[in-house]
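Meet the record:
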Amino acid sequence: MRKLDLKKEYHELYAPSSRKVAVVRVPRLQFLMIDGRIEAGEAPGTSPAFQEAMMALYGMAYTMKFMLKLRPKASIDYPVMALEGLWWVEDGVFNITVKDNWLYTLMVLTPKIATPKMLEIARVEVRRKRGDNPALQRIRLAEFAEGLCMQIMHIGPYSDEPATVERMRAFAVENGYEDLVGRGAKHHEIYMGDPRKANPAKLKTVLRHPIKKS
């Protein structure tokens, strides 16, 4: 059985420094994805639709992992990667402090050996084991190439993220880059900690914004 550690393979993208903003080039990668929106008056932590989408996505990610691990030929074992979220708005400038108008794509990085046929088999299997979560039908397998980005590891509660985003924006201005979030690009968060278990002061979240040279 072949072992694969995507976090180790893409260490630069999933373990950045918390002390300084870094510039990275993100290659074309394959993800399980699901789209949705936060309901009026809600936030990601309170939105029923968001929780439903997240449960469906994790169910599919773990089912595909075990399908690849248990297949009789060319089996592969790998840790399921962290949840990621792309966030944006349709009705104006993205404001990280206002959350009930956000749209999102939730993602889990998946080995390129996974195929659309495996996705459909996994969808049937998750329904059989867990019942028909309506969000299951919206999950897709797709590639995403983010390109040139700036990123940093935010340590602390999600409510403190605006200050870290301001550090990123200041870095962009000082180094001759244009932050593309709000200009067609999406705010990207990678949740390296579980908010249900971790001390909020120690939560780790990768924050990433696409950029271009000014």
The longest strand covers residues 22-37. The chain has five helices and nine strands.
